UniProtKB/TrEMBL annotation:
UniProt name for this protein: HNH endonuclease
Endoplasmic reticulum found in the keyword field: no
GO molecular function, one term: endonuclease activity
Stretches assigned to coiled coil: none
Species name: Streptomyces pimonensis
Source organism superkingdom: Bacteria
Family matches, as Pfam families: HNH_2
Domain HNH nuclease positions: 39-92
Length: 141
């Protein structure tokens, strides 16, 4: 610490052992390539360090309790913002393929899909069911 109480030097480190899910990096690259590194929800094309940047998002989460499969049909290509909103159950894809706000606060817009990118409606329905559980009910009175 310096005389103002600020940390100096690198952050401290500790060793850990963790069990992590092994994701197939080639699938993530494939969905990004199919969708041209462009967000399927908001159409944003981010760049990071002079390269296209997008994220591969699992529709049905891989971890507990969802146990979704690591397969192309369970992946979307999203920007960082939409990935957070999707994982946070703030947005979902309705049965007509429209992306909606869990609280109904924004205009629905179609999920863009490359014809070569298959999606499994069962995974989309699973995610939607979580959003319905998470939906905030309007205050009564
Ligand atoms: Zn987006």
């Amino acid at each position: 610490m310096d005389r103002y109480g600020r940390a100096t030097g690198p952050a401290p480190r500790r060793d850990t052992t963790r069990s992590v899910i092994v994701r197939d990096g080639s699938l993530a690259r494939k969905v990004k390539e199919l969708e041209g590194d462009r967000c399927q929800i908001c159409d944003t094309a981010l760049r990071y360090l002079n390269r296209p940047y997008s994220q591969a998002a699992h529709i049905r989460g891989l971890g507990r309790p969802h146990h979704g499969p690591d397969e192309l049909r369970n992946l979307l290509c999203l920007c960082a913002n939409c990935h957070v909103l999707f994982d946070g159950l703030e947005i979902y894809v309705d049965p007509d393929g429209l992306v909606r706000d869990t609280r109904g606060g924004r205009e629905p817009r179609p999920l863009r899909r490359d014809p070569g990118h298959p999606l499994d409606e069962a995974h989309i329905a699973y995610h939607r069911s979580l959003c319905n559980l998470n939906a905030r009910k309007p205050a009564v009175g």
